[in-house]
Amino acid sequence: MAAAKEKSPAEDTAVAGVRVLIVDNEVAHARAVAESLERIGFECEVADSGPKGAARLESPAPLDIVVTDLMMSEVDGLEILRRAKASHPDCEVILVTGHGSVDTAVAAMQEGAFHYLQKPLDMSQLRLVVQKAADSLRLRRTNVELNQRLDEKYGFEKFIGRSSLMLEMINRIRRIAPTDVTVLIQGETGTGKELVAQAIHQNSPRKKKPFVALNCAALSENILESELFGHIKGAFTDASADRIGKFEYAHGGTLLLDEVGDMPMATQIKLLRVLENGEITRVGSNDVVQVNVRLLSSTNRDLEALVSSGSFRSDLYHRLKVVTVDLPRLADRPDDVLPLVDHFRQEFVDRHNKASKGVTGAASRKLVSYDWPGNVRQLRNVVESMVVVDIDGVLDVDDLPTELADVPDAAPQVSVGDSARLQSLTLEEIERLVIVERLEHNEANRELAAESLGISERTLYRKIKEYEI
Questions:
Q1: pLDDT confidence of residue 144
Q2: Cis before residue 120, ω within 30 degrees of 0?
Q3: CA–CA dist 387, 402 (Å, integer)
Q4: Are 21 and 67 in contact (CB under 8 A)?
Q5: Are residues 292 and 196 in the same domain?
Q6: For 95-130, b where at least 16 C-beta lie within 10 A, e where not — what string?
Q7: Is there a domain that residue 150 lies in?
Q8: Within a domain: 87
Q9: In sequence order, which residues have a C-beta less than 8 Å from that of residue 99 and are 6 or more positions away?
Q10: With pLDDT > 70 as the criterion, what percentage of the chain qualifies?
């Protein structure tokens, strides 16, 4: 009967799949190390000489951790370390050394070794160190993956829209992002002000540092100041311990002050001081703390009107609006509605495990005709609702929420360029252009494209052949 696999805390952190190379010219010792690590789930390979270990490192096969003896002939542990870091930069290297070579092992750690262990090996200690190396590797890779997902989510190419207003805005933030300038983002509720702020941060030199957002409208004056600047123990009744504020937490990164137009006058004065000298003072303290933060602010209010009425400081306003980004209402960019619908439809089809072939022409026209008081946020919620209630795989008028039920089914709007361009085309050329656009919008689904054009699928098929589409 096979021996039961030894239980260890390592198993609880999913070490299965972590590949370990053991390099040691003492074959029995190398195999003992491999057996000890395999018992708790690691996948091990053994190279019984320095040259064999170096040859394995030249292979493109994935490798996570290297455990190597330091003192070996021909190719020693230091050379294994250097080659591992050159060919597998992500992997962690653990050195095994005798008493006489500890100084050399410490020097090796300065070249990137994760740890060193002395002979004779304590197998429990070995497992613990290898486990820590695996955890370190996993955390580093998780951070890389997170940054990649952020790049994908907040990269400029991920902004959905083809209207001139949207393209102009994207071009503006593309130029703003690499700088350290203070930015004021203005737009109605639901237009995506925080997403723009995150895109600016994620495409700036500060992207590896924190992005912190604080809603100024949701907090009272005292709580807002504590949130911004922090406080010391005893500063007020509930201050039972020291606490850093958002400025200190965002040090080196970016701080977004959302709904900055609702900030109390007393807090405005303190914020102005921070912008002028880069220093904050925690509530209840006299000690000054230096902070290095890029400040972004956003608002759905008219700050110029607030300045005129005396409820917002003029000097702070001009410090915040070194550069402005104005987000257009969704109603002002109707050409972007259907691309956004397609984007959200796919998102929610995947999330809710639903089938969907597309959106009918009748439903599309209602969506484009609606004035969207809640902007993109409202559109996103509407599309999710449609996906959830749909039962036939096609989003149609019967899937629309009640607020869109009475929207007039306007005549189809075709984005085929400006009037001057249309005047230069023949009727057949215009017809071909419209058909191509409808097919693109409906992802080449002829049934939906034909319905949106008000013709039969057979007629559409004939037109496709006629125009060689």
A1: 57
A2: yes
A3: 15
A4: yes
A5: yes
A6: bbbeeebeebbeebeeeebbbbbeeeeeeeebbebb
A7: no
A8: yes
A9: 118, 119
A10: 87
The domain total for the chain is 4
Residue 20 and residue 126 in one domain: yes
Contact present, 10 and 131 (Cβ < 8 Å): yes
DSSP 291-349: ---EEEEEESS-HHHHHHHTSS-HHHHHHHTSEEEEPPPGGG-GGGHHHHHHHHHHHHH
Within a domain: 197: yes
Sequence-ordered list of residues with C-beta below 8 angstroms from that of 63, at least 6 positions apart, any chain: 19, 21, 56, 57, 84, 88, 91
Cα separations (Å) of 55 from 52, 239, 327, 434?
Answer: 5, 61, 57, 61
Q: What is the pLDDT of residues 161-197, one digit of tens each?
A: 778 888 888 889 889 999 999 999 999 999 999 999 9
Distances (CA, A) of 222 to 217, 265, 280, 284, 344: 13, 12, 15, 12, 40
Closest alpha carbon to 42 in 122, 119, 135, 105: 135
Six token digits for residue 385: 């609702």
Mean pLDDT of the chain: 85
We report the CATH number of the domain holding residue 383 as: 1.10.8.60
For residue 192, the SS3 value is coil
Helix axes 337-351, 361-369, angle to 10 degrees: 120
Burial class for 51, CB neighbours closer than 10 Å (0-12, 13-18, 19+): middle
Give the residue from 204, 203, 247, 202 showing the smallest Cα distance to 227. 247
Instruction: Give the tokens for residue 318.
Output: 């001009």
* 34 plus 110 within the same structural domain: yes
CA neighbor of 217 nearest in space, from 266, 258, 268:
258
Q: What is the DSSP string of 362-424?
A: HHHHHHHHS--TTHHHHHHHHHHHHHHH-SSSEE-GGGS-GGGTTS--PPPP-----HHHHHT
Are 72 and 127 in the same domain?
yes
User: Tell me: the pLDDT tens digits for 268-304?
Assistant: 999 999 999 999 999 999 999 999 999 999 999 999 9
The H-or-E segment that residue 40 falls in is none
Note whether residue 4 is domain-resident: no
Phi/psi for 301 (5° steps) reads: -105, 160
CATH number of the domain to which 57 belongs: 3.40.50.2300
- Write out pLDDT tens, residues 25-67: 888 889 999 999 988 889 999 998 999 999 999 887 888 999 9
What residues contact 187, with CB distance under 8 A and at least 6 apart?
193, 298, 300, 326, 327, 328, 329, 375
Neighbour count for residue 145 (Cβ, 10 Å)? 10
| Tokens coding 157 | 């190419």
Q: Are residues 176 and 316 in the same domain?
A: yes
**Residue 469: its pLDDT value, please?**
78
